[in-house]
Amino acid sequence: MNSEKITKGALFIASLVIVLVTGGMVLSLVGGTVPVFSKFGINFLFSSDWNPTEGREEYGALSFIVGTVLTSVLALIICLPLAFSTSLFIGEYYRGKRISKIIGTLVDLLAGVPSIVYGLWGFYVLRPFIVDLGLSSQGFGIFTSGLILAIMIIPYATSITSEIITLVPNDLKEAAYSLGATRLEVIFYVIVPNARSGIVASYILAFGRALGETMAVTMLIGNSNKIPGGLFDTGNTMASVIANQFGEADGLKLSALIAIGLLLFVITGIINALGKFIIKKLS
Amino acid sequence: MKKLVLLFVLAIGIASCQNSSNKNEGESKSTEQISITAAGATFPLPFYNMVFKNYTSESGVLLTYGGIGSGGGIRSLGDRVVDFGATDAYLNDSQIAELPAEIVHIPTCIGAVVIAYNLPDVPELKLSDKLLELIFMGKITHWNDPQISALNPGVKFPDMEITFVHRSDGSGTTYIFSDYMSKVSTLWEAEVGRGKSLNWPVGMGAKGNPGVAGTIKQTEGSIGYIGSEFAFAQKIDFALVQNSSGNFIKPTIESISASAQGDIPDDTRVMLTNSSDPNAYPISGFTWLILYKEQSYDGRSEKQALETLKFLNWIVDKDAQAVAQQVHYAPLPSKAVEKAKNILESVTFDGKSLLK
Known about the structure:
The complex is a heterodimer of chains A (283) and B (356).
Chain A: H1 2-40, H2 43-46, E1 50-51, E2 58-59, H3 62-93, H4 98-112, H5 115-132, H6 142-167, H7 170-178, H8 183-212, H9 215-220, H10 238-245, H11 251-282
Antiparallel strand pairs in A: 1-2
Helix pairs in contact in A: 1-11, 3-6, 3-8, 4-6, 5-6, 6-8, 7-8, 8-11, 10-11
Chain B: H1 2-31, E1 35-40, H2 45-59, E2 62-67, H3 70-78, E3 84-87, H4 93-98, E4 103-117, E5 126-127, H5 129-136, H6 146-151, E6 163-167, H7 172-184, H8 186-191, E7 204-206, H9 208-218, E8 222-227, H10 228-233, E9 240-242, E10 248-249, H11 253-258, E11 284-292, H12 302-315, H13 318-326, H14 334-346, E12 348-349, E13 352-353
Parallel strand pairs in B: 1-2, 1-3, 5-9, 6-7, 6-8
Antiparallel strand pairs in B: 3-11, 4-8, 4-11, 9-10, 12-13
């Protein structure tokens, strides 16, 4: 009885901490945004001016929102075919074979590499390569960041998708084969429909990671606070502007950065909710 | 279940042990070793790293410095979590009024902001203030522009885009650079202005002096401004800049020192950019340590205050100033040292001057 109570109490406290932390975070973020929203109102979301010079202060989040969405969507587009093919390779074609185990381990290894390492590699290898290709004169920009983000999120999407694909019951596949279906038909008519909620969820998770990724992007995007003029132009993302500018920020600028943080929080929340909704709809 | 309870008790026990041991440490420190903490600007970081280490081995006083940027240094002093802060841009009157008590500025050395560039076939580049305006405002976009060649006869410039690399974070280096630009270009002053972070007309950002230096070193055709030590250390080429007398000046210890030959106000709050001295490198400035004028606050001991002042008195003196030259900062001119010492003597503890 007594031990029962203690356990219950301990579990309750642990869960309460989560609620308090989430609530406290939202509360302090919202509190911090008051100055910027009372000065610029809703215009903060639709203006691309970012002028921290004293006496001429003007803040708008649009260029960062655009930069974040562009890089993440680009990453997702590059990631989709690659991650899907790799997961089919591991989870279906060479399932249980030695080669798929090796590749699976490599994928997990890549997923665990800290983002600063991707950033370094991107800065010293990928960026000069893009310059050599003649795509851009200095190699920084939306495309390079999108590419590095894609490389970072492919392991995430691959490892979950292949896991889900392996989980499709063998009975179903064998039934399809016995009816004369080819391997491709089994994949598209049996495996994908059965695993789709999991597959979608894995891409949403990967997209969420791309949205919030900071370090590697900061090193490669060029950090210019404007709406990028093209794929090879420099820009900035929400996470990266916060990382770059919080150190010296105070007053209105600090409030603008907190507002961007809150915005990122909300966008990630919406993406997660959307993911849950899609999974519910599909399964 | 009993195990769980035991675990809790154990955890609490360990936690309280740690508390008491911490307390002991704190007590022993106050009787034996004084520990001074400071934080702020990264521009003078190479200098501070060296002198702080030297001072610790000389006097036994433990010094820690966090290179978190000038803004961070000012905020840390405002929050009273450091003994003194460090900044490359002096605080203006309204910034001083925002702090909880009166502060004083102590200059420690003079640093130059160099215009670093990466053009492998161009060993020497001369830039006038007009060219700086045109390049940094995006009016000239290619290296082979005739206006650049006109000032650098005999040098063959490549047909390459100019990539301007600036700081992506707020910075005292940016303040010194933009203060100079505002003095020599009315267009710059009107459209960009001066500040620790700016609304850049062109270019891309990199974080910190090391970040800008690294990006320039890695990117052919790039140009940017960095604290001189970072260019010297990484062997990046830098330009000769035309000063107000029309001479093209290379940033050296002598030319940087020359920029401080003019009048210095008693509180040492002055920008040295665009000096009128004919031999002066035009983009240079003091870097300061800031501390409260009344040192008795938050229960600080008199000894702590005294040790802080002793250190500051030492850093403006000749031993530390000699170290400045080793890391390519110019030492303070004698009249600045004199003024700094006067300021330090005006710092009080409970109303009494500590250093007299």
